[in-house]
Amino acid sequence: MSQRVWRRDAELPPADLDAIRDGVILHGRQQTQGSDARDIACGLYEDGQLIAGAWGRTEFQRLYLSYIWVQPEHRGQGLGGQLLRQIEAQALKRGCVDALIETLLDEAADCFEHLGYACVAYLHDYVPGFTRHTLLKVWQPRD
């Protein structure tokens, strides 16, 4: 007879946490048709050092941008917008018709709106003092 044991928090090894996440993602993708998920990334280097980068995935003809980052001493120079244009160009080459970004920073949401994104949803006080903004940029309307 097998023995069942509950484990919580730090009792679960990192590999098991990965298995939970991967299992949910796999189950969700099995419910849909045409999943073609691929990582997408872009980095800017200066003297061999990463100073800015963006990372996400493309799937279902959509760019999902997870992270966009610029080293603090390089901010305010337009690098975030340049990163966004670089990764959008890659997504367009992959056949994406739109892009989705989420942020908790009002300033970032304003910047994304300035770059052609529209706020399609927001959740005030998602984290105390922060609003979760969901922004979408449409290059080609979906059927």
UniProtKB/TrEMBL annotation:
Superkingdom as given in the UniProt entry: Bacteria
Xref: InterPro entries: Acyl_CoA_acyltransferase, GNAT_dom
Residues making up the signal peptide according to the UniProt record: none
Keyword Secreted attributed: no
Entry's transmembrane regions: none
Pfam families: Acetyltransf_1
Keywords on record: Transferase
Start and end residues of each N-acetyltransferase domain: 1-141
One example GO MF annotation: acyltransferase activity, transferring groups other than amino-acyl groups
SUPFAM superfamilies linked to this entry: Acyl-CoA N-acyltransferases (Nat)
Entry annotated with the keyword Acetylation: no
Entry protein name: Acetyltransferase (GNAT) family protein
Naturally occurring in which organism (per UniProt): Roseateles asaccharophilus
